[in-house]
């Protein structure tokens, strides 16, 4: 049983890691070696690709820009989604089901045509080329997702817990922060990670809503394509560097995600 | 049973305002485009439903729609069961937990254009590991010239990219099952299958709904990865709906027609999602 | 149906290598006889649930053996031990109906349909949940869920024992009482060993024929409710059982003079000898408030002043502050019609009900009729 499980896990991780390894492998090679033939590891390892990323201001500022709007987005998404998810999981109210489904529909708009009105909207309110514009725009798909994931976790917490807490004299905000949030920690951890992830890799909105000052890393990456062809090495190095913040995030939320669920007395 | 209380609206209001700000005005603008013929910002004519009629009669839409449905069906059929199996196989405690969480999350964190790039290289016979291995195993494989190979490569790439999402969601769902349920099941002599069927699966229902719908919507709108990998080719083998749409909107600057296309596209996703959503939440209300 | 025997059983969550201070269960030997109704009584954190999980097989003990009918079962799973257990919080299979929940353990054993149906209906009737048999378990109220949870334990008629881990915690008091009676009835009818974990002495004494009192990872006394009341073998049993608990007063010995709560007290010879045999240990005597009587202050060897009187309905609890140097408080239970004197009172401690303890363990004192 356990052996079979470990085997499944190992095989799957192998499947996941080979392409990642290939990315790292490429990032340490020169373009000539990448295109020259199949090598399992760099024969002439070079850090030139990384040097480009860490010395050219357009690279590292775009990296910081991305981090800024993504963190803003995660914070905003969680702050507004937590109470809303609680409302959906505990109460019936006028139009609740329609509201819930309408939130979901916001993930469904194909971006190609919607980008232009987005650009017009954010230019009109004077937010164009600021991190907050991207953070707000990403809320369009992250907030519904956050509400949705959190609602699922909250529904699995027995309502008796709320009732007992109110009987014990907790006010709603106190109960929510002290008792309820700790109980759905796995959900909050997962939600934070997914918000981070979707915002971090999103390209089209982020590119449309910025030009110079707030240019994100994903947009900067598309600059590796030039008349001389694609700069594979730098693109791979940028890809590797782009993995790191996400790894940090999942490392921080790991205990929340892995935390078991204890049905205890309030 | 849920309590009926309209004051709950106050808790939902921030979400409503925030999302409506970014959702409603662009949507109205697109609807506006879709009934006009636009030459440049100052020259536009009202054309009514002409674009809609034209698009619904267009064989290109029907072809890519079919391709799209087949693709999304394959994505769901592979990624959801695989994701559940991976989640069930995750270690429950110890150092294995953070390690496998981080490794699983890696594909999700790769920017989408880089995902395409990785598979573009790794699938090549001359410089990529997979292409080389497959060809040396005696199978003739070339994703750039063979439509079937291209299609499978895009699918495998999607499985690689997104199964982790299903697995992570399911894992967190599994973690929210109190230990006492497993203990009770052991006392009741439940088989592993019964534990999965009656304890794990019901508790996973919420997260599975999310996983299925997210994967459906995102696979139905897939654009960047196949565009980088194959450019939609060879021929139109991997030209999915959003690429058709993008060609129309950006390539041909046919904004009115593209807007109408977008709305039809949006409605199809809406419809299918609604069917999924109702089917998967319906049983809740019974008994 | 089985006799459950524990041999040199002990448990450290860290395993054998963990320091001795980590014992969740201290080494113990114990026998639960076939067909008995037992309670395992103790405060939270004393190791009751650990012991229960070891018996059911959910937890492997780090030391010692568990035997069912003389057969070691350490390496057997709960399934193989054939044991039923009901948990503190209701565990129901949400998506199944109540009927399917109750039938689940039997179906897993592959019993014939008719047998299952008969058993399920019998148990549902006993627990008064016949009306909701066809409802989905997720829509039940908390106490209905707990009944279903208990029902799954009771439905199997071939089990070695049924273990209850504080099963009535989430149930409201009135129903609690009825359910306890039901359990007792079911116990008589099915003749199955039942072990019932609780921290409530009333629950333990109404359910069980014999109670094992646990304290700090050990069973400190095993006996009938009456034995626990009259003859506590450990000071903990003295003050945990009874309400209020046993009065405990310090005794010290200075040569031939024995003092009680700091003042010399005329203990008979047998008592003085018993204390002398326990040199170097902490000495105490204990007496239940029920046996303390108030007498004339002039002739009594022990006196004090009334500090507080609590009316409990049919009786009163009187707190008396002793006039000895230690100023200990002793509680006496007096009948309603007795007038409690104001100010100084004398206290009589009848020797028949006085118990001696050395380092919290009961010391036998030879009876002499004087």
What's this, in brief?
The complex is a heterotrimer of chains A (266), B (287) and C (370). Chain A is 74% helix and 2% strand. Chain A has 13 helices and three strands; from the N terminus they run ααααβααααααααββα.
What does this structure look like?
The complex is a heterotrimer of chains A (266), B (287) and C (370). Chain A is mainly alpha-helical. Helix content of chain A is 74%, strand content 2%. Chain A has 13 helices and three strands; from the N terminus they run ααααβααααααααββα. In chain A, strand 2 and strand 3 form a beta hairpin. In chain A, helix 4 runs parallel beside helix 7. Helices cover 73% and strands 4% of the residues of chain B. Chain B has a single domain, classed as MetI-like fold (Orthogonal Bundle). Chain B starts with a strand and ends in a 5-residue tail after the last helix. By secondary structure, chain B is mainly alpha-helical. Chain C folds into two domains: 235 residues, P-loop containing nucleotide triphosphate hydrolases (Rossmann fold), CATH 3.40.50; 119 residues, Beta Barrel (OB fold (Dihydrolipoamide Acetyltransferase, E2P)), CATH 2.40.50.140. In chain C, 26% of the residues lie in helices and 32% in strands. Chain C has ten helices and 21 strands. Chain C has a six-stranded mixed β-sheet, with helices on both faces. In chain C, strands 13-12-11-14-20-21 form a six-stranded antiparallel β-sheet. In chain C, strand 12 and strand 13 form a beta hairpin. The longest helix of chain C is centred in the middle third of the chain and has 18 residues. Chain C is elongated, with a radius of gyration of 25 Å. Chain C starts with a strand and ends in a 7-residue tail after the last strand. Chains in contact: A-B, B-C. Strand 1 of chain A pairs parallel with strand 1 of chain B.
